[in-house]
Amino acid sequence: MNAPCTFSIKNGGISQYFDVSYLDFNRNGDTSVLKQNQKTPFNDIIKKYQPTQNFLHDLDRIKFKHDLHRQILSKRGKTIKELGTLSNNQKKACKKVCENIINTVIFSRQKDVHYKSGQYVAFVTLTLPTTQIHSDKQIKRLQTRYIENLQKTYGVKYYVWKAEAQKNGNIHFHLLVDKWIDWTVHRKLWNKQLDKLGYLDTYQQIHGNRNPNTTDVHSLKTDKKGRKIKNVTTYIIKYMTKLEFGKRPILGKLWGCSDEAKNLDYPKYAEGEPLFDHVVHLVNSGKLKQVLKEDFFSFFSGKSFKIISEKYKNLWSDLKSFYQFQNGNNKPKTFQEKSFVRAEKYIPDTKPVSIPKIEILDQPTFEQVKINYGNQAFWTNNVK
Question: Interior CA angle at 286 toward 282 and 290, to 5°?
Fold first, then answer.
C-alpha cells in the first residue's frame, strides 16, 4: 500500500484508513440522485405545497408522492432513504458532532471554574403545548430564533439538534448544548417563540395559564428512569441517531449544529508522527476487536479511551491537549502569546529621523565592470 496510513481515535474504537488521494485514480460521483437532477411528482408537490391548518393530514398525501418517487428511482437503479429518516452519512456526521462536543467540553473543563459559569454538557428537549397546526418548517424557524438567543445571551458555542415526531404527531427537538442554563430560562425562551404562532393562546383557553411545560433539561448524570449514565457519549448518540418506527415523517432538515461544532474533528495520527507507533501497538495488542476490514479502511471496536488512559499515558495526554487546543484553551507550543498593554495616552515620537547618506560614484569600480560585462572573449558571436 503506497498510500500513508492514518489512525482516527474515537471513544468507542479506532478507525484505520489510507489516504487514497495520493493514489493515481479518479472517482466519479453520482449526481443523478440530487433533487435538482430529478423530475418526479414528489418534487413538484414539495415546491407547490403551502402549509395549512391540516398539516398532519397533508403528510399522508406527501408521503404517498414520496413512495412513488422512490419507486421511479428504483426502476432507474437508484435507492434513496425513506421520507423523514437519516441516511447513513447523516448518522455518521451527527454522531461525530455529538461525540466531539462531549469530548471537547469534558477534556477542557477547568477544576477551578464552577460548572455554572464554564462549559457544561446539557441535554434539552423542546415540545409543543397543543396540537401542531403549522408546518415543520415554520416550527423550525422558532427553534432557530431560540438557539440564537442561547448563543447571543448565554454564550452557547457548541450545539447540535435533532427533530423527531411524537406519538401524537407533534414535532419536538432534542438539543445538546455546552452551557448550564436554568430550566426556567429554557422554558421562558421557548414559550416566547411559541407565542408568535399562537400556541400559548390556545393553551390558555384550555388550561387557564400561559406557562406550559414545554421543555425538559437533563444534566446527563442519570437517565429518565433515574439510572446512572455510564457512558454519556453512547447515551446521547442513541437519542440523536435512533430510528423512529410507527411515527409520521419530519419534512425538511432533520438535524443541524453550529459552525464551531461542525469544525470539531477526531484526533488523528499519521505515519511519521511521534505517537503513531503507540497507536499501532494498541491496535496490535488485541485489546480492541477488528469488526470491519476493507481495502482502504478498518475499524477496531472497544473502549479505546479507557485503555489509552490506563496504558498509554503519553497518548492520553496528547488526546486531551488536542481537544483543549480545538476548544481554544491551549495555544500551539511554538507560539507564545504576548500580552498587549495599551498606553494611557498616545505620545508621538518627535525625534528627527536620520537618513543614511548614499555615496554616488561617477565611475564604476573594477568589480562592477567585472560583474556587468564579464569576459571580453564572449562579447562577439565569432568565438570558436
Answer: 95
What residue has cell string 414535532?
171
Residue 372 cell numbers, joined: 556587468
What are the φ and ψ backbone dihedral angles of 282, each rounded to 5 degrees? -65, -40
| Burial of residue 261, with CB atoms counted within 10 A of its CB: 0-12 exposed, 13-18 middle, 19 or more buried | buried
Q: In the numeric block, which cell numbers belong to residue 216?
A: 425538559
Helix ranges restricted to H, 108-177: 136-154
**pLDDT of 92 over the 60 cut:** yes
Tell the residue number behind the cell numbers 454519556, with chain if given. Answer: 232
CA angle (345 as vertex; 341, 350 as ends), nearest 5: 105
d(CA 165, CA 172): 6
- What end-to-end distance do the CA atoms of the chain give, in Å? 56
pLDDT confidence band for 223 (50 / 70 / 90) = low
Instruction: Give the span between the Cα atoms of 81 and 73, in whole angstroms.
Output: 11
pLDDT digits (tens, 9 = 90+) for 318-360: 999 999 998 887 655 444 444 545 455 545 556 565 555 555 5
Cell of 291: 469488526
Lowest mean pLDDT across 75-84, 207-216, 259-268 = 75-84
pTM greater than 0.85 (yes/no): no
283 contact partners, CB below 8 Å, separation of at least 6: 7, 14, 16, 300
Task: Report H helices in 76-135.
Answer: 88-107
What cell numbers appear for 356 in the block?
A: 543614511
8 A C-beta contact, residue 103 and residue 261: no
For the chain, domains (ranges, CATH) are 88-262 (3.30.70.1910)
Mean confidence (pLDDT) of the chain: 80
What is the biggest distance separating any 2 CA atoms in the chain, rounded to whole angstroms? 111
Tell me the C-alpha distance between 78 and 63, whole Å: 18
